[in-house]
Amino acid sequence: MKRASVLFAALLPLFTPPAFGGAPELNVKAICKARSADAIRSGSPPDQSTADCLHDEEDAKQQLNTLWASTSVPIRNRCESDARALGTTSYLDLLTCIRMAKEINSSPKKETGKQ
């Protein structure tokens, strides 16, 4: 029985959806290096240095961790899914998506003019 409990505890993180726990863990170093490489490949200078990119992503991660728990699971899942589908999963992308979704959900509904 003890072995089954240990096995369950070890495997649970592998099968736990990100929305169930905290904000997803991303490899920001790889993200920033890829952005820089993409810019060079397209013949343009990178928008920012890798160090600046890392700093911005870490700041976004801290802000995202603050918002994550108060964001509904459907919004978190949609933002993660959209970012993965576009191949742009980064803390900045997730943070922007969540902020936009919250803004849209909190804006007052316009009347349609029907009576």
UniProtKB/TrEMBL annotation:
Keyword Signal: yes
Superkingdom field: Bacteria
Signal peptide interval: 1-21
Keyword vocabulary terms for this entry: Signal
Listed name of the protein: Uncharacterized protein
